[in-house]
Specification:
Layout lengths: L2 E4 L4 E4 L2 E4 L5 H9 L2 H12 L16 H17 L6 E10 L9 E10 L8 E8 L21 H14 L7 E7 L2 H4 L1 H12 L3 E8 L17 E5 L11 H10 L6 H16 L4 E5 L12 H5 L4 E6 L12 E3 L2 E3 L8 H20 L5 E6 L7 E6 L9 E8 L7 E5 L3 E4 L6 E8 L12 E3 L1
Parallel strand pairs: 6-7, 6-8, 8-11, 9-10, 14-20
Antiparallel strand pairs: 1-17, 2-3, 4-5, 5-7, 9-11, 12-13, 14-15, 15-18, 16-17, 16-19
Helix pairs in contact: 1-10, 2-4, 2-10, 3-4, 4-10, 8-10
């Protein structure tokens, strides 16, 4: 077995000088550069013109309400699909939501899904990116007020749409689905329908990225202004583990409560996003979401899929869930003039770098295990090749201190085993597949094997 040591790009400071080593894929960088702040602004401003995108608003008008909004989103996605050579198809995901919490009558709802089919028929992986197109004001049950929803969440919808525009012109081995979902403000109804459908139909979802409130750079009360930081929220103990005492006991014994699939995705996002986007700080937030809030990644977590949420670093609550008004000299309301379109562009570029790198990479290694049968100051790992898609050129074994938030070393190996001169008792490890061009899969945290 051969292995070489690679270091994750870090900053080295020697006698006042600094060096940063970054390896980029030229094709991904070209796509990143194509993301347009002007297109994003035009999308957000158009979505605001529908007056209300409330889940219970009018669905028959051609100019106002959620029906007009979803029809416009689908029509725009279909324009992008025309450049895909038949690879991308756009469809409504239609369902009826019965009367219930924040739904005062049964309502016919539609998500918009633009599906860019993977070019490798043997690769079953799916990557999803989403924003919600519905909006609200102070009264969550008011479907008729002026509800612009420019940042919450026309910004997230614009991310999905701009990604579809740029990426539909390219081919990837794995499938990418660009979503705009409904019913988030009323109870995550649109994303719940897609997540349950994905589970029932055995979709091989490798990662889901949720963009919700990603357009503001000014913090209310703190007066902080930050156009380079974005938060990625990731759960620790997986939602599907809740109530399973055996699985919880395993996490406790391993110290693996900080290495859920979603945490590995978050670390991957930080490394990859900062590799491609200048002046970007991806902030890892170790919780599922903010206090008193929830997002469209949650239903996917509850179905056992890997998912995270992106949100701006500092929020301005005078812009969220507010009637449009001026009160005591303060402007309220989620209007487009308060969105930083260049910041949304940066968030979109981050999403693109992650989706492209994942969709071009080999699939994850399978049955990753750390051998615990002997007392030793070395670490032995073994795994199987991916179950789908192309064969990897090799694998990275990742290593970090148990107290570190990010992976610190990479060991490249060409076989499906590795023995390292580092104690398994002192470090944490994971394994990811990599192709000849350097595209990496998500890392897989090992389970103990004898």
């Amino acid at each position: 077995m051969k292995y070489l040591i690679f270091f994750i790009p870090v900053l080295f400071i020697l006698q006042g000088t600094a060096q940063t080593i970054i390896k980029q894929d030229a094709a991904i960088k070209q796509m990143v550069d194509e993301v347009s702040a002007k297109n994003i602004e035009a999308t957000i401003r158009t979505l605001v013109t529908f007056k209300s995108r409330h889940t219970l608003s009018d669905t028959t008008s051609k100019t106002e309400g959620s029906g007009a909004a979803r029809n416009w989103i689908k029509a725009e996605m279909e324009k992008y699909a025309a450049s895909s050579g038949g690879r991308m198809k756009v469809q409504f995901d239609t369902f009826t939501q019965p009367k219930g919490n924040r739904i005062d009558k049964p309502v016919h709802l539609k998500n918009v899904l633009a599906i860019l089919k993977g070019a490798d028929p043997k690769d079953t992986r799916i990557y999803m990116v989403s924003g919600h197109y519905d909006s609200r004001i102070t009264d969550v049950m008011d479907p008729n007020g002026v509800e612009p929803g420019a940042n919450d969440d026309a910004s997230g919808t614009a991310v999905s749409m701009e990604l579809a525009r740029v990426m539909s012109k390219r081919s990837f081995p794995a499938t990418i689905i660009f979503m705009s979902v409904v019913g988030e403000e009323q109870g995550l109804y649109g994303s719940t329908n897609v997540a349950k459908r994905a589970k029932a139909e055995n979709w091989d979802i490798d990662a889901m990225l949720n963009n919700d409130i990603v357009g503001n750079t000014h913090g209310m009360e703190t007066d902080l202004k930050d156009n380079r930081s974005v938060r990625v929220f990731s759960e620790g103990v997986p939602s599907v583990v809740a109530g399973n005492e055996r699985m919880i006991a395993g996490l406790i014994s391993l110290g693996g409560e900080n290495d859920s699939p979603s945490r590995e995705l978050a670390r991957y996002i930080k490394e990859t996003g900062e590799r491609y986007i200048d002046q970007l700080d991806v902030k890892l937030v170790y919780r599922r979401d903010r206090y008193l809030r929830g997002g469209d990644h949650v239903p996917f977590l509850q179905q056992g899929f890997t998912a995270v949420r992106f949100t701006e670093m500092n929020e301005d609550f005078t812009r969220q869930h507010q009637n449009v008004r001026t009160e005591n000299g303060v402007d309220y309301g989620d209007l487009p003039d308060f969105v930083d379109f260049n910041y949304v562009q940066k968030v979109t570029r981050m999403n693109l770098s992650v989706l492209a790198n994942l969709a071009l990479a080999p699939a994850e290694p399978q049955n990753v295990g750390i051998i615990t049968s002997g007392l030793t100051n070395k670490t032995q790992l073994k795994w199987d090749a991916p179950k789908t898609g192309k064969k990897p050129a090799g694998y990275y074994v990742l290593m970090r201190e148990t107290s570190s938030a990010v992976w610190e070393k990479k060991f490249y190996v060409t076989e499906s085993t590795a023995t390292l001169a580092y104690s398994k008792d002192n470090y944490l490890f994971a394994v990811q597949s990599v192709d000849a061009e350097g595209h990496e899969s998500l890392p897989v945290f090992p389970k103990p094997v004898r």
